[in-house]
Amino acid sequence: MFTRDSSFSVVGITSLYLRVGEELVMAFLVLRMAAWMWNKFSTWFWDPYVWLPPNYNWEDLVPNEKVRYANWSDLWTYPIVMALIAIPLRFLVLNNLVYCYIAQAVGLRNVRHRPVVPNETLEQLFSRYKAKLPDCEISRCASVLGWSQRKVERWIRQRTAMTRITKFTKFMECAWQCTYYTFIFIYGLYVMFGKSWMWDILHCWYDYPNHSVDDDVWWYYMMSLAFYWSMTFTHFFEIRRKDFWQMFFHHLVTIALITFSWTCNLTRIGTLVLIVHDCADIPLQLAKMSIYSGHKAFCDAVFAVFAVMWIVTRVGIYPIWILYSTAIDAPTIVPMFPAYYIFNGLLFALLFLHVYWTYLILRIIATTITKGSVEDNRSSSDPSEISDDEQVKKEM
């Protein structure tokens, strides 16, 4: 027989099960509602009218025995994994085993700044003012801490030095980019040499969108997208220059272009954009490495090569050959659709960035003519441009 206490426990357990059941039912309904909303959004977002030429559906672009279409899911798996591999490869392997020794061989020293004695009062002021403490604040801190003003100023200088990135580190950053651009440009030439659209750009539009993605083009896309994902992931931890936000916008535009061209199977024009952009970055990184290592004569020569290649490819070949074809040739061969206009808009946004950077390059050329040496205009406001030897003296 049940006792009074046992009957209460049965009622309590029953009510508990009922509450749990109600919560499970509510959770199930919420999940179903979320799935329904996601399905509606996905159907709206991936509307073939937006992404594909007229009279085409996504079922028409499923890879088959005849045509290997671009697989959209590849964009969100392989490049992300490759980017996450590239980041430790760069910082843990190449920086420590290759680039640091090259930097030392060209005369750079890996100067490690001495850490400051922890001080909460000064740390709060440094977080607020950085290196530009007002004289009144220095005087106030000196009286509060019982220090001399010179001792406070020395602490601020040492704390500022801890946040600066040395030329040794900058050199290794450029070495990584130089390695990538050299490899990907050579690989791009290998891939594109036998492609019909390399020699006749109209083949980018003939029989579109029934273009098969060969294995070499697949790797070209995946490696390029992986690099720009890795640069985006690490952008806020890199050297901050004047064009910090322009470069970040450039990474996003490049990723968007690669994604759009892959999704819409515009891989042929995409490969042309990639190869035109990669070549000028090689002498650019070599010139910057020469600046940081102090080899001015070599830097001037390499920078001259870079300036010619940049102007020829970025403000010459790119708009005259590629943008002309996307804006003038394509509409006469391919039925237009909304995503294509977005893709073309991103291509022109890239051109505007080229014009801005061309302006910076021309400023550097003007400075070279007047001062007789190349300087990195983007870094002119970077406090880490102080030489490592000078910084060591200031800390003493």
From TrEMBL:
Main location as per UniProt: membrane
One function term, GO molecular function aspect: sphingosine N-acyltransferase activity
Pathway: Lipid metabolism; sphingolipid metabolism; Sphingolipid metabolism
Cell compartment(s), UniProt: Membrane
GO CC terms: membrane
TM region positions: 20-38, 76-102, 178-198, 218-237, 298-321, 341-362
Superkingdom: Eukaryota
Topology term for the membrane: Multi-pass membrane protein
An example Gene Ontology biological process: ceramide biosynthetic process
Domain TLC intervals: 169-370
Positions of region (Disordered): 374-396
Keywords from the UniProt entry: Membrane, Transmembrane, Transmembrane helix
Protein name as annotated: Ceramide synthase 6-like 2
Organism of derivation: Homarus americanus
Gene it is expressed from: CERS6-L2
